[in-house]
Automatic annotation (TrEMBL):
GO terms for cellular component: mitochondrion. This is NAD(P)-binding domain-containing protein. One of its GO terms (molecular function) is protein-containing complex binding. PANTHER family: NADH-UBIQUINONE OXIDOREDUCTASE 39 KDA SUBUNIT-RELATED (PTHR12126), OS04G0403500 PROTEIN (PTHR12126:SF5). It holds the Pfam family NAD_binding_10. Residues 78-203 form the NAD(P)-binding domain. SUPFAM superfamilies: NAD(P)-binding Rossmann-fold domains (SSF51735). It comes from the Eukaryota.
Length: 305
């Protein structure tokens, strides 16, 4: 006689935990979503096979089969930049397939994760979207930057709007935009191309992806920034400042209603937290909408588990 016993384990711990933290729901809903969610999760199946006839067969030992099903594939626009590389690295660490596109292509970082990313060299205004987006389950845009008024409108606004529409037309189910905190600035100070571009891009994400689009609004992002081969340790300033501002948060809260107060009071956020908040967003259907600095930190903590 032959016996075959199988047990299946579902390991979606980090993604489910993050949902629970950000979006509490009942156990029934939890189970329903676990099994019906579009978000991929890993299924590990262990099977043991044994002959009970008493005849020993050297080839008939227990069989352990672990099926590791990876179905997430992201395209990071600007994956070679400061925030982009952190997103690529975090995604790879969680078993997500990553393609990056930027004009400079592969960055000068070392580490095994670098070889696991597909580095595409291209300008978002001219890329072949059909080729780039084939098989992707989400697009993450880090496109943005400073320059002349026209340049800022173009890269923060137009480039992202183009990308959102390309992703939507291609049928990509999720779009994640790295935007920026408004620093509590009065609206007349939010007019420069940087902010107007960002807000137009945000509107495009939220209108084209009303129930899955994600907009992260970090303030100052710290970490180790690579500029022309040199490492700029922004964390030396950013990390202690973040800790200090979080420690005095209860005292400074009454000042939050003052215009522009967040220029001084918005806590910096680490580039890894932004990256892991993105990972959380990639893996969770329930993660959509606009996320503040504090919510980015919470989402990252849940995804790192
Ligand atoms: N750093 C911060 O403190 C901070 C704070 C709040 C918000 N943000 C936002 O976060 C995002 C990322 O910031 P970052 O500091 O990581 O910027 P970054 O280092 O300059 O990265 C921007 C990336 O976009 C790529 N890119 C620019 N134009 C492109 C084009 N036409 N086609 C393809 N790729 C293009 C760049 O690569 P190539 O130049 O090689 O093309 C680079 O990989 C930005 O949207 C920024 O506004 C940053």
């Amino acid at each position: 006689m032959t016996s075959l016993s199988c047990s299946a384990t579902i390991s979606a711990a980090s993604s489910q935990l993050s949902r629970r933290i950000l979006f509490p729901y009942s156990n029934a809903t939890h189970l329903h979503r676990l099994f019906h969610s579009r978000s991929p999760f890993r299924v590990g199946i262990k099977c043991s096979y044994a002959e009970s006839s008493g005849i020993k067969d050297a080839t008939a030992g227990p069989i352990d089969v672990v099926a590791d099903i990876k179905t997430e594939k992201i395209v990071v626009l600007g994956g070679s930049g400061f925030v982009g590389t952190a997103i690529c690295k975090a995604a790879i660490s969680k078993g997500i397939e990553v393609t990056s596109v930027s004009r400079s292509g592969r960055p000068k970082y070392s580490g095994s994760w670098v070889d696991q990313v597909s580095w595409v060299t291209g300008d978002v205004f001219y890329v072949n979207w059909d080729e780039l987006l084939a098989g992707a389950t989400a697009v993450v845009s880090t496109l943005g930057g400073f320059g002349s008024e026209e340049q800022m409108k173009r890269i923060n606004g137009e480039a992202n709007i183009l990308a959102v529409n390309a992703a939507k037309n291609f049928g990509i189910p999720k779009f994640i935009l790295i935007s920026v905190h408004d620093y509590n600035l009065p609206s007349f100070l939010l007019t420069p191309g940087y902010f107007t571009g960002k807000r137009k891009a945000e509107s495009e994400v939220l209108s084209k992806y009303p129930s899955s689009g994600v907009v992260l609004r970090p303030g100052f992002i710290y970490g180790k920034r690579l500029v022309d081969g040199y490492v700029i340790p922004l964390d030396l300033l950013g990390e202690p400042l973040e800790k200090f501002l979080l420690a005095i948060e209860n005292f400074t809260k009454p000042l939050n209603s003052l215009p522009a107060s967040d220029v001084l009071l918005a806590p910096p956020v680490s580039v890894d937290d932004v990256a892991f908040a993105v990972v959380n967003a990639i893996r969770n259907d329930d993660f959509f909408g606009v996320f503040t600095i504090e919510q980015i930190r919470e989402a990252a903590a849940a995804a790192k588990v």
